[in-house]
């Protein structure tokens, strides 16, 4: 998520200057005055992403002692609970690896320092995390990266039993990263099997996937899937074929979840822009250099319309008044394209630690919350990411605790899903 935001900003043909990014003249008039803030709802999703890839949030780099890992995980949960959160989205499969004992994939290098090495003394981090979240009345969403297999071909630890060694024909290298070939049906089925195994064995509340389906483009380099296109293209254009591949993995995962535990939710966190209006009359009034539909081959609107997913968390990591991807404009657009599914807005709270002046305004996050609460089609927020809260950026922890999240909220129910059986609670 965060690492590839740089790609987007570089892709904007005329990047906004620091002065431009603080403009508020482009904010819709209905959002200009937040003095009459909507009341805190009784049902609202309030989540935090906890990224394990490259030790972004948890566990800390070099923290391989299980007792230390457990202490740190509890500490982060306690912080978020105190801030009013009711869910954590924990990355358990960052690169065809596992933060749990998996029959398919090796232990993650970011857990123990070497891929394939189990924690010593042994424990199951995902089972531990689920229990700790549920003790605090928080949902646990298991976050998987669907197609990244080797984070860095130059430096990643790769176990002898890793799937890239067992089935090298399923993979392609793009830049310095190895990916499952999304057009390979066997590779798709492997990912489905991994998801099904998690849902069968663990009491997760949801399966969550981010924006990394087809990878973000590298300038001057074509994604190397020509061989599988020749085999499986079926007369489609390459772009249409790629989108059909992404549709296929989404439908297969959704069916696997429903067949196993139909009360478990399936959510996607896409890049914040589906398409620009200049590309499609249905698109948003934005000028994004990257879009889900055209660059990541993810037709999120189709998945929402067809009910293939239960919630969407668009990563709207831009500020109110941004000249090319304006926060309020995008919130309005996603609210109008929810198709009855849940929408949780992804906030880029980590941007406080960057130089953009807009993110040093104390009212940036409070106003973002106030804007989204004006829409009944939007049911909450997710923040990237966990450690960003540790230094109480801009006093936002205090704002959440004392104001916007002072009153607790329940996670909004999804009436189209069956209730969790009492035996599973």
UniProtKB/TrEMBL annotation:
Any Pfam family matching the protein: GHL10
UniProt keyword list: Signal
Name the UniProt record assigns to this protein: Family 10 glycosylhydrolase
Every Glycosyl hydrolase-like domain range: 44-349
Species whose genome carries this gene: Flaviaesturariibacter amylovorans
Signal peptide: 1-18
């Amino acid at each position: 998520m965060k690492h590839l935001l740089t790609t987007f900003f570089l892709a904007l043909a005329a990047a906004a200057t620091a002065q431009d990014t603080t403009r508020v003249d482009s904010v819709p008039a209905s959002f200009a005055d937040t003095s009459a803030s909507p009341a805190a709802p009784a049902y609202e999703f309030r989540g935090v992403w906890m990224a394990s890839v490259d030790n972004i949030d948890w566990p800390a780099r070099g923290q391989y002692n299980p007792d230390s890992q457990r202490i740190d995980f509890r500490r982060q949960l306690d912080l978020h609970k105190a801030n009013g959160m009711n869910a954590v989205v924990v990355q358990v499969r960052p690169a065809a690896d596992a933060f749990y004992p998996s029959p398919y994939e090796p232990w993650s290098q970011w857990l123990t320092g070497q891929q394939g090495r189990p924690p010593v003394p042994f424990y199951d981090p995902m089972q531990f995390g689920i229990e700790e979240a549920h003790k605090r009345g928080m949902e646990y969403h298991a976050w998987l990266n669907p197609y990244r297999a080797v984070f860095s071909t130059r430096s990643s630890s790769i176990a002898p039993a890793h799937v890239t060694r067992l089935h090298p024909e399923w993979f392609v290298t793009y830049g310095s990263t190895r990916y499952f070939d999304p057009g390979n049906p066997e590779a798709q089925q492997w990912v489905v099997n991994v998801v099904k195994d998690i849902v069968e064995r663990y009491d997760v509340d949801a399966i969550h996937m981010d924006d990394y389906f087809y990878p973000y483009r590298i300038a001057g380099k074509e994604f190397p899937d020509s061989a599988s296109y020749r085999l499986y293209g079926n007369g489609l254009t390459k772009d249409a074929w790629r989108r059909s591949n992404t549709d296929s993995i989404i439908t297969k995962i959704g069916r696997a979840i429903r067949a196993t535990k139909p009360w478990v939710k399936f959510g996607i966190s896409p890049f914040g822009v589906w398409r620009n209006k200049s590309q499609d009359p249905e698109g948003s009034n934005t000028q994004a250099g990257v879009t889900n539909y055209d660059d990541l081959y993810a037709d999120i609107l189709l998945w929402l319309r067809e009910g293939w997913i239960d919630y969407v968390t668009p990563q709207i990591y831009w500020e109110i008044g941004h000249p090319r991807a304006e926060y309020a404009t995008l919130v309005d657009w996603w609210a109008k394209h929810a198709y009855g599914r849940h929408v949780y807005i992804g906030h880029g709270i980590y941007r406080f630690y960057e130089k953009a002046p807009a993110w040093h305004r104390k009212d940036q996050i409070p106003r973002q919350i106030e804007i989204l609460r004006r829409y009944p089609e939007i049911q909450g927020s997710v923040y990237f990411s966990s450690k960003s809260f540790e230094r109480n950026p801009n006093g936002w922890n205090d704002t959440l605790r004392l104001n916007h999240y002072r009153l607790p909220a329940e996670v909004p129910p999804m009436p189209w899903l069956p209730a969790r059986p009492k035996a599973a609670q």
